[in-house]
Amino acid sequence: MVKDIHIQKVDLRVPLNMYEKIEILAEKTNQPFTPKTKNTDNPKRAVTPIILKLVELGLGVIEEDSSKLIEDLVTPEKDNSETIENRIFERLEKRLDSKLDELIGDKLGLFETRLKEITEAQLTADTPEVKEDLSELPENKESAIEVINEDVSAAKDAKTFEDTVKKIKRLNSQGLNYSQIAKKLTEGNYPTKQGSYKWSGNQVKRILVKP
Q: What GO terms are given for molecular function (predicted)?
């Protein structure tokens, strides 16, 4: 394999105390697991993307306000590399956390908006529009009684499945085929065993040839 002379190696060595924090960030940001080299029940997250992001953010911080950064991180009393590393890492970690919160907030906002749309659509579908024709309302008590009597008569005229079976046998004795009987039953509002009023020739056949 020919080596690309334009690719430079990046030194990713990190102090141990910072590496532990980077591992936590790698888990928080759901980085992929590193390829397994041994059988283990505790695979590690890939930390390289986090380290490179920290380098990128660190350079960005320095470019944005290098004088203020140096003033914040270095003091006459605590001018040592460990303190500087800890403060830089603390600042970058806060930036990453705020970015994660922003992304999660955006996702939650989209989810809540979508949920609201679905809920409103369901409420609209479940609430039928009521249109009342006042012309059909009874004008007095006598007409109201007539309406009630009509409802009672309709209830008495309601057919049962036993009525349907009798009707099928009667029509069959008249020489009608299955399809013709089904048509008669549908037109006469005879109920099926399941409570439907739509009949087919096969339904009639099952009743007539029932052992």
A: DNA binding; DNA strand exchange activity
* pLDDT at residue 1, rounded to an integer: 46
C-alpha–C-alpha distance, residues 79 and 73, integer Å: 8
Is residue 90 within 8 A of residue 61, CB to CB? The reply is no
Report which of 51, 70, 49, 52 is spatially closest to residue 61, judged by C-alpha positions. 70
Is the pLDDT at 206 greater than 80? The verdict is: yes
- C-alpha separations of 186 from 153, 164, 203 in Å: 21, 10, 12
Residue located via tokens 């141990």: 16
Tokens of 105: 């907030």
Mean pLDDT of 33-57: 75
Average pLDDT across the chain, whole number:
71
Question: CA-to-CA distance for 26 and 15, rounded, in angstroms?
Answer: 16
Read off the DSSP letter of residue 3: P
Instruction: Count other Cβ atoms within 10 Å, centred on residue 53.
Output: 17
Q: What is the pTM of this model?
A: 0.28
- Percent of the chain exceeding pLDDT 70 equals 58
Q: CA angle at residue 139 from 136 to 140, to 5 degrees?
A: 135
